[in-house]
Amino acid sequence: MTPDARRGGGDPSEPATQPIPIDGHARPGGSRRPTRGWVVAGTAAVVALITALGLAACGIGSDEGGPGAGPAVDAASSEFWVDPSSSAARQVEQWRSEGRTEDAAQLEKIARQPVAIWPTGETGGVEGEVAGVVSQARDAGRTPVLVAYNVPNRDCGLYSSGGAENEDAYREWLGAFARGMGGNRAVVVLEPDALPQTLTNCEGEGEQEGREELLAEAVRTLSGAGGEVYIDAGNPGFVTDVGELADGLRTSGVQEAAGFALNVSNFMTTEQVREYGDRVSDAVGGARYVIDTSRNGRGAYEGPEQPTWCNPPGRALGTPPTRDTGSPRVAAFLWVKEPGDSDGDCRGAPPAGEFWPQYALDLARNTPGE
């Protein structure tokens, strides 16, 4: 992971790419703080944009091919909530006002799609932020996708350091998060990196005793508030010992959760992730899982330019968010990472977590469809 644009601040950072195997070893990826958060969609410009988009079919899909890629799905047929004030939506409106109509049309491939919201790490603000997202989604007849990312000693004190001050503070934050949900259904991806880091990279990097039990508490708290909770389990290159990961998932409460999440903010193809996910599922009694397909349309970057994980060139959007995955084990394809958010200040990009319009545009241009 690369350093956050803002460490330990009120907004949580989001992992951009978790480790993938390179020369037989796992390498760290980037991280970011979300710059979107929750913004009430009340301006005329935003309303005009959503009207223009119409949540209509955009016909985007993955060019990875092979089994498990899933059909192209337009936003209108997805149950998940589309944030009308996402970074991509605002950029579309700006480019239209500047006459960049072709670029704006390309970026609609992202703006039309539901992307997960990463609420604040501040206990005093998370309840209202989550409540606002849930309210908008309920009014639209859609299901919101949220990410709970505030575990103490996040990232084992490494690049995405931060999180709640201690376990009690984390419990308070979870309680506020749950109150914001208010019993309304929401998909919740729980603590990206927390379990995989604990199982692989945390030795000597901070106290992790009891983290799995704390995750199990989070599962119960958020599930009781209406959450369809998926515990983050990394990706095929993160925890290679499936048995060890299964033990960690069981201790973290996977039996009480909806399942686990894979490929969050990573680029691995759906086919690769499904093969791994099915093995993990077998090891934990058939639990279902979700896959982040936001940027995996062409899989991971394997070119010569380094670092391979940071804003890699030539990538494409993956299968849009949908429940229609073609597999009984895969509960949904989700866009957990907002396409276009920088992995870090490499290749001319802004700091980790800032929306990089050019990168978002490149992802869209590399994706078939109107």
UniProtKB/TrEMBL annotation:
Pfam family, one: Glyco_hydro_6
Transmembrane segments: 37-57
Broad enzyme group: hydrolase
An example molecular function term from Gene Ontology annotations: hydrolase activity, hydrolyzing O-glycosyl compounds
Keyword Disulfide bond listed: yes
Origin superkingdom: Bacteria
Keyword Transmembrane: yes
UniProt region (Disordered), positions on chain: 1-35
The entry's keywords: Carbohydrate metabolism, Cellulose degradation, Disulfide bond, Glycosidase, Hydrolase, Membrane, Polysaccharide degradation, Signal, Transmembrane, Transmembrane helix
Residues noted as binding substrate in the record, renumbered to the chain: W118, N266, W309, K337
Gene Ontology biological process: cellulose catabolic process
Active site: D155, D193, D343
Enzyme Commission number, as recorded: 3.2.1.-
UniProt similarity note: Belongs to the glycosyl hydrolase family 6.
Protein name in the entry: Glucanase
Biological source species: Actinomycetospora cinnamomea
